[in-house]
Specification:
The protein is mostly helical. About 70% of the residues lie in helices and about 0% in strands. The protein is built from 12 helices and no strands.
Length: about 290
């Protein structure tokens, strides 16, 4: 190869056995338990999504407030609706809201964060002001205000949660970019004629994906909790659609005579949140740069 060709080669971006480190996340105790819990939650949600089992909205007054049995695994509520079917539908709704909201927040926040961190200047100051304003409000209060303002539906709940978590992704992405923009391979890519935008997406963004993936898993668990809190307060997914937070609220006055109404959605909510947090812990341990050479 000629010397001229060598001059135009961009030094290879450092790698740390990425595939092995990703696999390591599912060999840690927290990663394994988190993966198992999320597999269970996902299967239950898929059951509801494809219509397997009983209709979560079907009412049978004669079967109201029946305890767990062969026909109703987790009992029935005050309207005779099957609790197991409603828990599955509630998990499906929670995952749908969480996935949409976190996807929107991640795309928007990461884009703003990496552009602000890489280009600096006016853009960085504008993004900083926006994130500071959003961080000035308690997250649940901001989501509650947005959900109350918009037309009530699962999509508006997802949008409200996305607005709340967008500045988190912006800051998580901006910090590492401030350091990586001075890395040798980034400077070399710019020196040989690569555009700054091309360098940003080809050499900077791939090196912060590990951090972003961990943040996504944690944000998913927070989004599920936020959706449940909004539904509990009456600003979440409107009935008759099943919502775990709404089921917990409805079970408050009946918990003494029908404890399964409170127990079932509460346990489902715990399984989803704990599963995502454990999965995030496993990914964080595996992708920690300090453990790259271990």
């Amino acid at each position: 190869m000629s010397a001229a060709a060598d001059m135009h080669e961009v030094p290879e971006v450092p790698t740390t056995r990425a595939s092995g480190r990703w696999a390591k996340a599912f060999r840690t105790p927290s990663g394994i338990v988190g993966l198992v819990l999320m597999a269970l939650v996902t299967v239950l949600a898929v059951f509801a999504a494809v219509g397997v089992g009983q209709d979560p909205a079907a009412q049978d007054v004669q079967a109201a407030l029946q305890g767990p049995s062969a026909s109703h695994w987790l009992g029935t509520d005050q309207f005779g609706r099957d609790i197991f079917a409603r828990v599955c539908a509630g998990l499906a709704n929670s995952l749908r809201v969480a996935l949409v909201s976190v996807t929107v927040a991640a795309i928007g926040g990461v884009l703003l964060g990496i552009l602000a961190g890489y280009y600096q200047g006016v853009l960085d100051r504008v993004v900083g002001v926006i994130t500071n304003v959003l961080f000035a409000f308690p997250s649940l209060l901001l989501a509650l205000a947005l959900a109350a303002t918009l037309h009530r539906s699962w999509l508006t709940v997802a949008i409200a949660i996305a607005v709340v978590y967008l500045p988190i992704f912006a800051r998580v992405a901006r910090g590492p970019v401030l350091t990586l923009r001075h890395a040798e391979y980034v400077l070399a890519a710019t020196a040989v004629g690569r555009s700054r935008l091309s360098t940003l997406f080809e050499h900077v963004l791939p090196n912060i994906l590990g951090i972003l993936v961990v943040q996504v898993t944690l944000s998913l668990s927070w989004a599920i909790l936020t959706e449940a809190a909004l539904s509990f307060l009456g600003f979440g997914t409107p009935p008759p659609a099943a919502s775990l937070g709404g089921m917990v609220y409805a079970a408050q006055t009946l918990s003494s005579v029908a404890p399964w109404m409170l127990f079932a959605p509460g346990v489902a909510l715990i399984l989803a949140v704990v599963g995502l947090n454990l999965l995030g812990d496993g990914l964080r341990a595996a992708l920690d740069p300090r453990g790259a050479n271990q």
